[in-house]
Structure formats: C-alpha cells, structure tokens
Amino acid sequence: ATPLAVAAGIRDAARRGIVIVSDAVFEQAAGVDTVVLDKTGTLTDGEMQLLDTVAADARPESVRRRAAALERASPHPIAEAIVAGVDDDGAATDGGRTATATTTATVTDRGVSGRVDGDDVVVGHRSLFGGDEWTIPERLHEAGSNARDGGRVPVYVGWGGTVRGVLVVGDEVRSGWEDVVDELAADGRRVVLLTGDSPEAARRFEEHSSVDEVFAAVPPEAKAETVRRLAATERVAMVGDGSNDAPALAAADIGVSVASGTDLAADAADAVLLEDRLSAIPELFDVTRGTNRRLT
Ligand code: ADP
Ligand code: MG
C-alpha cells in the first residue's frame, strides 16, 4: 500500500467514525472470509438495565444491595446496570440510608465475589454455582430459564451455599443489524455470532438467514480459542468489545472494537468503531476496497 493511498483510506474511514490503527486492516480486509460478531455490546446496544429481581430465602432488597455492593468493583456493562438499578431504587425508597459494606471484591470473567456484611457472596453466571457446594431453589432455576428464554441475562446471587436471588438484566438489539449482516453476506463473507450468552439469547440471531453459524455459551476465556480455530482455515475479522473481547480481537486477522467506554490507548484492536453504528462494519470493508483500487 502506498503511503498516499493509506492516508486517503485512513481519512475516509475517519469521516465515518472508524479509526484505523494498524496496516493489517488495509492488507487483510479484502480477503476476509469470515466476520465474527460478538453479541452483547456489538449486535445489542450494550445499555443494560436491571429489569427484575427474584428472591428466595432472602429479602429481595438484601439480594439487590449485596449484588450492587460487589458489582461496584466491575466495569462490565451488566455490573453497571445492576449498580445503577439498585441505586435508583434505593434513592427512591430509603434515600440511600442502608449502604452495604464490602470488604473485598474479586472480579472475574463471569462475575464478582467478595465479602459483604460478613458473608461470602458470589454474583454472576450460573456456572459459578455448580457442583455440590451450591443449592439452587427451584423458583430461581425457573426465573433463570425464563429470563434466558426471553433473551435476557439472569445474574445469580448467592451466599452460605444457597443461591438467594436472580437479577434479570437486558439490553436492546441494535436496529438495522439484519441489513448489516445481509450486506456482509452479499459480499460473500461468512457471518458468525460468538457469544458468552446462552443459546436461547442467541436464537433470534441464529434464525436470520445471513447468519451462518452461532457459537453460544462460550466462556470468555474460550472466545479467543474459537477465533484462533476459525482463523486456522479462514481469514477472520472479529468485531467485539475492546475490553472483554480483547484476547479474541487479538486472535483474529483483523480485530475491530466497538469503542463504547474503552480506553483507546489500551485497545488491542486493528480498527476502532467510534460511533454506535453497526453499518460502520461493512463501511470498513468499503473503505479498504477503495484504497486498494487506488493502488492498482
Ligand atoms: P457476551 O459474550 O454476551 O458479550 P461476556 O463474555 O461479556 O458476554 O460475559 C459472559 C457472561 O458472564 C455474561 O452473560 C454474564 O452471565 C457473566 N458475567 C460477566 N461479568 C459479569 C458481572 N460483572 N456480573 C454478572 N455477570 C457477569
Ligand atoms: Mg461482550
């Protein structure tokens, strides 16, 4: 790529809110066989809201307060939704009288654990509550599967060996996502959805004809491995969130991050989409195509 053509491409991209960080984008984009899309924060707007609280063996208020106390330590969109939802409610009902003390908080890929009000509390994905250590009351099992069936994320909250509550969190699917995947498919690219979320939550995407393959319930640490496996036989562009999906972005031939709330300097991506606009994905391919045309 001549410096002039690259400069023109970078400028065209910038006009569309696309920051091209690495030359790899110009070198590899045209040959991309497969576009892997993350779900939460990419196909959905990532603006999670706390929608419902179901409790068993505890007061809903203690479940909510304890969960929020721990989630304060996590930057995950789910955590932010829980903290904001509980704070709003607390302000409305008791003026924030009953602050809950956290003495420690350990953030992992699937949730947060720590000591709150003298109990060891765990908040997060159902898989954190497996094995003999945990009892999950039937009512909470049901709340969890109902949430998943509705495309929502159930967040489990437990202490003392018992799951005490399920917080239901959800966001909205970005409008126009169908057109975007149609456009990628019309360009002859395979469209793959990769999500840590449940198969039920992925179903509405799977049903769309331009989506070729769906990998659901992929734990965060396995996302990069899935991308690596695809990239062994295909040229892969991965679009995801710059912080949670950083290893998967790095494993792809081209990593594209959706900028929302990410520190650009710490971003491992080859290109960054600055605006909440999914159509920037096909535009990225258009821009590089234009650049390569100028080269020949
Ligand atoms: P996605 O692939 O949909 O973007 P992530 O890989 O970011 O999802 O997270 C996978 C799952 O881990 C989430 O759906 C959620 O169940 C759980 N999880 C991760 N972080 C948190 C947190 N801070 N609080 C509660 N649950 C969490
Ligand atoms: Mg994500």
Automatic annotation (TrEMBL):
Signal peptide: none annotated. It is found in: Endomembrane system. It comes from the Archaea. Belongs to the cation transport ATPase (P-type) (TC 3.A.3) family. Type IB subfamily. This is Heavy metal translocating P-type ATPase.
